[in-house]
Predict the 3D structure of the following.
Amino acid sequence: MQSRRFPPLPVIGIVTGVYFIAGKLGLSLAFLNASASPVWPPAGIALAVLLLFGYRIWPAIFVGAFLVNATTAGNVATSLAIATGNTLEAVSGAWLVNRFADGTSVFDRPQGVFKFALAAVVSTIVSPIFGVTSLALGGFANWANYGAIWLTWWLGDATGDLLIAPLIILWSVASKRRWNRSQAVEVGVLLLLLFVLSEAVFGGWLTISARNYPIAFICGPIVIWTAFRFTQRETATGIFILSAIAIWGTLHGFGPFVRETENQSLLALQSWAAVLTITAMALSAGMAERQRAEEALQQQKSVVETANRTKDQFLAMLSHELRTPLTPVISALEALETEPARTEETKASLAMIRRNVELETQLIDDLLDFTRITKDKLQLRFAPVDAHLAISNVVEICRAEAASKQLDVHLNLRASTYNVAADAAKFQQIIWNVLKNAIKFTPEEGEIAISSLNPSPEVLTISVRDTGIGIDPEVMRRIFEPFEQGNRSFERRFGGLGLGLAISKSLAQAHGGTLTVQSDGPDRGSTFLLSMQTISPAEALTVPVRTRDETSWQGLKILLVDDHQDTCTALEKLLVRRGYLVAATHTMRSAMETAVRNRFDLLISDVALPDGTGLELMMQLHAISNIPGIAISGFGNNGDVERSLQAGFSEHLIKPVKLDTLEAAIERALQGAAVS
């Protein structure tokens, strides 16, 4: 980070003063040569201020370095050379960090810490070259000791960069972390424990400290724990405290780094401190990076969850808006189909309209079923199901579509045990999806064979084999994935959403079964195999079969409420034709007024009304009479159904409502009311 303006003179003055004081303190530990110290904090100070304030702060470093050396040893020439070397060292170090290690953000990632260490090691070569050479030329250093003085100078500068620069930079940049009370207590305890252990190792408190046993490693776990639990700022602070105590103790003859001379002792100590700093700071940066990644994932999770909720709300609204206009169409179709005088052309047109309306209804159902399955909110009502009867029903439903393509559909139901525990509607949906898939992808005049067998008495396997376009081996691996239809040409040629097989496989698994596919390749047909556990004939008889008298509900008084004019009119005509007495209203208020004037046997109401909801209407009618009710709505999620039942409705039907479905619901609602 480079400043665009020249720093104010007070800032330059402060930096100069701080550099001078730190330099005099560092040179007080110069034992090999008066100008070469193994502990040199000014190097870290210079690097930090250049990174924080920009390169134009360099005069402060130059003046501070000159004053330190001019008042210590040498002459003006050597002081100028040393000041030049110190300044160039700091500038080159700052340039390397800015260029290759993200500037003041260098400690945010482990890679940055290692790059910073490398920059410190490389840039600090400059100052000892200038300084030691100028001292040797001026006669202030012995050429025989050039290597030892150079090493002391370089290690002091490098360690100063590694220990002091991170401390200043991290405390100068605002921290994004906010401690709570427990974290503040924890960091305080850690720093106190680090101080105590440092004193135990380097303070001479214990005999092992005075005898210089190699026990410095006992401070490591505290530093590492600080790196794992807190930020780089706390880690750098802890290392600085440890280093300061270690220097004091080593100079007083305590700790494991005491050598023959004080200079050798400090060189050993500084080497250990440098390695510990790089390790701890890299760990701390790694933990910070992990925390940022977790926070980013959490944010992404929140975004995805919000998007999912928005998607679900959109699908629910889309379902409602698409289903509502289909209800009067279905009702009008059923009314037209009961007309006695119909030509063959009219019959064909009505059949075509029904097929397309039912196709659109199925597409809507597929979208909602897929949403329920992916959110694990699919509810199944298990009961004994005659699989052969369900297969026959599906074949009859699809027979007209198969006949339109001149397909031969063969049934070969040979299984002797064919009762399963299943949700009848969802089990039939599995067979329906697989058979529709076979019809869709089998060319005209092809064949479809549906068979059943018992590989073992406890297993029923249903096979749907076709002579269609087959499946490529690569496509077969993902054929049950959502929205998968093979290559793009199939999507354009055959249409659809590609959800049927994915839903069928999920439904099969929800029933404890499996759905698999076999194919010898393109244009060689395919075979889908559904396997499920069977139940015994005795278990299949546990649910009694009920029949109804078609004339038992003649003259039933129904209050019909729906704000969609066409839907209300079409349903009213159908119900009247079936012999019911119907009063049709379009608002909650008019429905209540009608209910007060007349007594009704059943309420059929849309959930969404212009002046309220069908749920509120049901609860108000329950307060004055025990009338059963059937809710009809374009919303069909589990939550919508549960709210309808909690409001007092006996049934919740999803638009478009077919007459046979509505009549079955009427029967159940009235039977339930009669029992209660």
About this structure: The radius of gyration is 42 Å.
